[in-house]
Structures are given as structure tokens and as C-alpha cells.
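Most newcomers find our protein records easier to grasp once they have seen one. To make this concrete, we reproduce a full record directly below:

===
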Amino acid sequence: MFQQSRHGQHHRIVLIDPLPAWVLRRFSEDDLPATLQIVGHKHEYAPLGESIASPNLVLLGMDEPSQDHIGLLQDIRRRWPAIGITILVPSLKPHDFLLLFALGVQGYLPWESQFEDIMAALSVVATGGWVGGSRIIPQLLGLGAARHSHDVLTPTELAVIVCIAEDQSNDEISQVLGMSTKTVERHISNLLRKTSARSRVGLTRWWLNYTMKHH
């Protein structure tokens, strides 16, 4: 599941509580692949500590996003800009998801996720991928009534851009959102026009910048 990093080194993960006890138990046993090493374990309110040796992954548990979590994520991103962040959370409101997305969280998993699913998600995040955001798509589509008239994107366009950030193909997006691939293509064309982006990568970057400015 876990391959060596692009520099031939092991992946290094920091665990940040609160995490489910059974997850911590599995991490403490001999269930980790040889290419994954735990380099830190802390509580959400404890300082990061200077002794943590250059991790490239973080697994963070949270009851619900708070200002403390925002500050922690900002500190993590400031200290290790290229780190891959995955969270375990019981539920996630659309606006909270957008904020976490803007802060660079790449993995979004339910609190009750199986250990194997957690490891699979970490493997995706370790390679720069995104996972788990699609499960909140139905709620994102319901944001229309709460959006302001000056907002640039429609709720459907917002859902499409989240799928794009997870590297989903047009066919996959059409299945998630229940629309034809031609409709997906039309939304992407509108997104490119509205944002002046030139590619799917550019759309993701635009959305990250936009959400950072509006939260």
C-alpha cells in the first residue's frame, strides 16, 4: 500500500489526538507498513515540539473544527509546507469543509473509519492526492440559499471544483453529481472562464486562494 517517497525515504507521520483508542492501538502494534514511521504523537492543544523529525504526513482527530484547530493547521502548514494532512471527524458542515480545504487538508475521513481505510487514505495523501471530500457533496449542493449574491461560483460549480481537487475524471464527477458528462464539461468550461484558470490544476489553486480570502 505505502510506497517509498520520491526520495527513497520512509513516510513519517505525526498523530494528533483526539484519535479513537482503537486507531491508536493499531498504530502502536505491528500493523504499520515498513515504509511508514511514527515520528510524533501529541494532543491537539500541546505545542508541536521542536524534536519532531520532518514528518510528511499528519493524522488529526477532531470532534468538530474550532479556532484552535485552525491555528494548529496553520502552524503545521507553516512549519512543514509540503506535509499531507488527513483528519478524522464525526461529521463536517459544508462551511467547515471549505475552510479545512482552504487550509490544505487533503484527507477527510469519518470518525468510524476502518484502519485499512485510514491507511489507504494516508497512502493517497502521501502522493499528493485528495480523498474523502466527495462525501460532503450533497451538503455542498445545498449551500445555494446561504450564499451571497456577490459570490463567484454556483453551488454546483463548487461541487465540481471539489471533485476536480480530488483528481476525479469527468465520468467520475458525472456519477457523483448525477449529471451527464457533457454537463460536467459545460460546468468546467464555465469555471475556467470565471476564474481565468487554464487547467484543472489552476482551478484547484484558484479555489484554495478564494476560500483563504473569504473565511
User: Anything to note?
Assistant: DSSP finds nine helices and five strands in the chain. Confidence is low (pLDDT under 50) at residues 144-150.
